[in-house]
Amino acid sequence: MPNTSPETNVIAYRAAEQLLDARDPRGALKLLDPVISAHPENTAARLLRARAFFLAAQLRAAEQEFQLIIEREPDNAFAHFALARTLQRANRNDEALGHFRLAAALDPRPDYLAAARFDQAP
């Protein structure tokens, strides 16, 4: 990547956020790949890329990215919730439920609690 600077990476990240908000996950991925190549440890960029993979229906790539985030930050409730949604979309509902429940245990937001279905047996 020619002459990247921290500022260039921040601009690319912000532009990728806007593209994702505009429902252009593939455009966001193009901007995020160089940012993550330059800063592979950047969890925020990886989380944004995982969301872009999910919205682009690249479920395996989204799953891998969310798993990596969870390995680094096991208490990241959003990553657990998003991984669960990814697994659910791939018809892996039993695996998804475990992550929904972890997300709800880490952060008892109403949407996480509803997805966790604590009122039902596992």
From TrEMBL:
Record's protein name: Tetratricopeptide repeat protein
Domain of life: Bacteria
InterPro entries recorded: TPR-like_helical_dom_sf (IPR011990), TPR_2 (IPR013105), TPR_rpt (IPR019734)
Entry-linked SMART domains: TPR (SM00028)
Keyword Repeat: yes
Keywords tagged on the record: Repeat, TPR repeat
Signal peptide start and end residues: none
Organism: Streptomyces hainanensis
Coiled coil: none
Any Pfam family hit: TPR_19
NADP found in the keyword field: no
